[in-house]
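Entry type: protein chain
Record version: 2
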Amino acid sequence: MFRIKQSVIDQLKSNPCSAELKKALTTAVELEFATIPPYLTALFSIAPGSNGAAAALIQSVVTEEMLHMTLAANILIALGRNPDIVAIGKSLSYPGPLPAKIDNDLQVTLAALSKPQLKNVLMAIERPFTREGEILPGETVSEPTPDVPGEFASIGKFYQAVLAALAVAVELDPELFAHPRQEQQIDIGKWFPPVKTAPANGYIVDLKSAAQAIETIVLQGEGIDFAKLALPTDDDGSYAHYFKFGEIYHGRTLKRDPEAVSGWSYRGEPVPLDSERIYNFLANAAVSDYIPGTPASLAAQRFYDAYLLLLNSLNKTFNGQPAMLDKALGLMYQLKLQAQQVAQCSVGGNASNLVAAPPFMLSH
């Protein structure tokens, strides 16, 4: 799991005004979007027609990350600011920490799906906050989240701080949500599966709806609250991201297990991962990594151009044209097709199976 620098929200706690809330929520949108390239890279590394269970799990996580970004953006829009998705997308750099220098110890990489990538990056991003004595499924001993002074332990703690600041801000300014600009917000009911914890259609119109949106993000992301439920699920009964990645890592679905210390174990149906049908991607690829004029370079540039189109469509979506999300989701499908073309290009020579990877960066 990653840790949030205290400095990100220190000012928010001491001065929970609209300006500081907008900064924190902009960071939230950046964080949610920053997880999408590593997850998509893992998904795109799966050869078409193979590893169906693993692909479905990763796709579900990507969909929920898009939902989380949308809910965070809706809160931001309700407070009077719109996110710049183009700037966010172009600013991301891999390998490196997540935006706002969150948890410099966690270096997020873009790489093919593998057990090391699952454990060290994908599951590390999503790992829930745990206290002494609490054991996650798949573990045999307690591995509590380190208590590092000056940091929040997880993304859930960050969102809790944002919600607390929102509550104080509403007390100070009862008109905070007086003009939520609902016409600019995204109706999640049109594009995402139903989520009963989310506010109606995803619209943020008051503190209650903002709290529902934040609860949805935290439950689907971390999905565990030992003090409340002691269950690795969200309120819809589906597993949170850490556990979905865990099913791929452990090779089996998660089930209740009274004999396990946590009450759960990965002992269900097989989740096979055929490594022979995983492309050996060039890690942390950028367009500049490929020799100009080569098939790899041309395919990579086409992928990056499609990515820029996606960024622009998302930017319009969150800046007054919510119906553009339909086009953006179509571009995500196009992105997948372009990624498959990139993966057909060898870059390691005749003696290597290294292939070109779809680049989410123009250069390093």
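Comment: Residues 280-355 form one domain.
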